[in-house]
Design brief:
The protein is of the alpha+beta class and 211 residues long. Helices cover 25% and strands 19% of the residues. Helix 2 (82-90) runs antiparallel to helix 5. The chain has a domain at 58-189. The strands form 3 sheets. The protein has a 4-stranded mixed beta sheet with strand order 3-4-5-6. A two-stranded antiparallel sheet has the order 1-2.
Length: 211
């Protein structure tokens, strides 16, 4: 009897087997589409820890800038102290307020205000060189924001500013003043809605006692 060899497997069958194995291997590396969407938490754009704007039971008015005049906006705060009002002012406008055209003339900086004291309920703001480094209308608006905001706090009628250990002269409608200033010194930037019909655009500043 003659010996017979083992029949060779048909080439197409071998190719099919190899193709199936390759498909299994590649399938293990494939990124499959997600069957259901997964919610992803995005960080909030609002920092609730910003002093003075974390939403309390009381309200204060802070003065921002629209065009070249001051505009009052309301902030909900924990208390109505001068420091809380100042912190709310330093926090600046919200994104929505910026979109509506509001801004602040105050440069970013830490500001601290003292309790009002004699004479005439004068509060003292401790500022940095960034404030005294402003000039022209920008400085007038920035100081006007401070004065109009802080004189809305209980007991505050006038304002002085110190940088380091020195008291600085403040710009007013009538030029630089070495004395404490009041709202009447910033009539040129006063909110339009507060001007009486027929009232002069630049009323005489209040130069009462205690300056």
């Amino acid at each position: 009897m003659s010996a017979r060899g083992t029949p060779a497997a048909p080439v197409p069958v071998l190719l099919g087997v190899l193709g199936a194995l390759l498909g299994v291997l590649l399938g293990g590396c494939q990124v499959l589409p997600q069957q259901r969407p997964v919610a992803v938490d995005l960080p909030s754009t609002t920092d609730p820890s910003v002093p003075g704007v974390d939403g309390g039971s009381q309200q204060v008015e802070v003065y921002l800038v629209r065009g070249d005049r001051l505009t009052p906006v309301v902030r909900r705060v924990r208390d109505s102290s001068a420091q809380t009002a100042l912190s709310a002012l330093v926090a600046g406008p919200t994104r929505a307020e910026v979109g509506s055209g509001l801004r602040t003339a105050l440069p970013p900086q830490p500001l601290v205000v003292s309790d009002p004291r004699p004479p005439a309920g004068t509060a003292v703001v401790t500022a940095t060189e960034e404030l005294s480094g402003l000039s022209g209308r920008s400085q007038l608006l920035a100081v006007g924001q401070l004065v109009w905001t802080l004189t809305g706090a209980d007991g505050v009628q006038r304002l002085r500013v110190v940088v380091g250990d020195r008291s600085v002269e403040l710009p007013t409608d009538d030029g630089l003043s070495p004395e404490a200033v009041a709202r009447a010194d910033y009539a040129s930037v006063a909110p339009l809605e507060l001007l009486r019909p027929g009232a002069p655009a630049h009323p005489e500043p209040d130069r009462g006692g205690g300056r």
